[in-house]
Write a structure and sequence with these properties.
single chain, mainly alpha, Trichohyalin-plectin-homology domain-containing protein, coiled coil
């Protein structure tokens, strides 16, 4: 049967482990696949050997049951012409069966190679389609990411531009308000100065009026004093005039005049005192009003300063809030960019994993195909050994049957040569098929596979 003894010995997975080989990426799976393929073929060979053994045993038993008078192969030289013709016919039929079997095997090889070529072509097309889809998906992903980044950047720039515009508007409003406040403050200062000037003028007017009143009062007092002095002179004149006549009466009148003068002086002093008190009161009221006006101006100034400080503090807080929002927006933007980059890395890792799995699948498929091809080559070698074995048996039989006629030997030799020629042609045709398949693989012209193979 052309089976070597070492092909029947059991092996383990470690026996098929090839380190630093062309399948290093999937060497573990490749070793298991080699082991499974070897074990499957070993079991098939064992089963074939069992069947062949059963056939041999049945033939042996059937020969044992033949009549003792029947001739054995060692006495084949005593066969008659009919027996020789029968053997030649059997040999011819066997040769035809061999030719038919070889033709079927070649046809099966062609069909298998055609099927494998179609599968490889389909796998190549699918791989190219997957690569194209992967490139398109990556391009779409990059375009989508770039578009998203551009939109995000434009949105951030628009938002920043809007915030800057709002900040500029707020700054402009604050500037206008400050200018307005400054104008109001300057107007208030002018009003205050005008009020102070008016108050000063009023005070001067009041002082002038008071001075005028004082002068009038002094003039009135002087007039009264002059009048008193005149009256006193007249009284003295009258006293001197009547002194001689009425000394006592004059004394009495003199005393009365003195009392009257004293009372008049007291009234004048009282009037001067009242006028002085009124003047002091007016001055005090004026001073209080001036102090109150100054206090009010001071309070207004403090209030204005406080309002300006409040506005400045408010603007500072608004600016801090704007900066915080801007920083938050930038942080959010960075987070979005980080999320996009993380998703991109995850997607690329997933794509790499898918590609690695497909690459493993492709490598294992290539290994399986290689193992199948090697098995076919081993089958061819086995068939050669079987044919060689049959040839040797036939030569042995021919040497044992040298008593046959020369015609039978020549026919037998012709049949053997034909069988050898058929085997050689089958081997050469298989070799040509293998070379044609290699050329088709190199040229990748699978559409001409049937035409090429059937032309062989």
């Amino acid at each position: 049967m052309g089976i070597e003894p070492e092909e029947l010995l059991p092996k383990s997975v470690n026996d098929f482990w090839m380190r630093n080989g062309r399948y290093a990426l999937v060497e573990k799976e490749a070793a298991v696949l080699r082991y499974q393929h070897f074990e499957q073929m070993r079991q098939s060979r064992l089963e074939a050997l069992r069947r062949e053994r059963d056939v041999v045993m049945k033939e042996y038993e059937s020969k044992s049951m033949v009549s003792p008078t029947k001739k054995t192969p060692r006495h084949i030289d005593s066969l008659d012409t009919d027996d020789a013709s029968t053997l030649l016919k059997l040999e011819q039929r066997r040769l035809e069966r061999i030719k038919q079997r070889q033709q079927k095997e070649i046809q099966a090889v062609i069909e298998m190679e055609t099927k494998m070529a179609k599968i490889q072509q389909e796998n190549s097309r699918r791989a190219a389609e997957d690569a194209r889809r992967k490139l398109e998906y990556q391009k779409e992903l990059r375009d989508r990411r770039d578009k998203l980044m551009t939109q995000k950047h434009e949105k951030e720039m628009k938002k920043k531009k809007q915030e800057d515009l709002e900040a500029a508007e707020r700054k402009m409003r604050a500037k206008k308000e400050a200018e307005k406040e400054k104008l109001l403050q300057e107007e208030e200062q002018r009003k205050q100065a005008r009020r102070q000037k008016e108050a000063m003028l009023c005070e001067l007017e009041r002082a002038a009026k008071a001075e005028e009143f004082r002068r009038q009062t002094e003039a009135l007092l002087k007039q009264q004093e002059d009048q008193v002095a005149a009256n006193r002179a007249r009284m003295l004149e009258k006293e001197r005039f009547v002194a001689q006549k009425m000394e006592q009466a004059n004394k009495k009148r003199h005393m009365e005049a003195i009392e009257k003068r004293e009372r008049a002086n007291q009234r004048i002093q009282h009037a001067l005192l009242q006028n002085q008190l009124a003047l002091q009161k007016r001055k005090h009221d004026f001073d209080e009003k001036q102090a109150a006006a100054a206090e009010r101006a001071k309070e207004i100034h403090k209030k204005t300063i406080a309002e300006l400080k409040d506005r400045a503090q408010k603007q500072k807080k608004e600016e801090e809030i704007r900066q915080k929002r801007l920083a938050a927006a930038r942080q959010h933007y960075q987070q979005n960019v980080s999320k996009i980059m993380t998703k991109r890395q995850q997607l690329e890792a997933k794509l790499a994993q898918v590609y690695e799995e497909k690459e493993k699948e492709r490598v294992l498929h290539s290994l399986d195909k290689q193992l199948t091809t090697e098995e076919k080559l081993r089958n061819v070698e086995r068939m050669k050994r079987v044919e060689e074995y049959h040839r040797m048996q036939m030569i042995q039989k021919i040497s044992e049957e040298d008593v046959r006629s020369r015609t039978v030997k020549l026919k037998k030799q012709s049949l053997m040569e034909q069988r050898q020629k058929v085997a050689l042609e089958s081997m050469l045709r298989k070799h040509r098929i293998t070379e044609a398949m290699e050329k088709l693989r190199a040229n990748n012209k699978w559409d001409k596979i049937e035409e090429t193979l059937y032309a062989l």
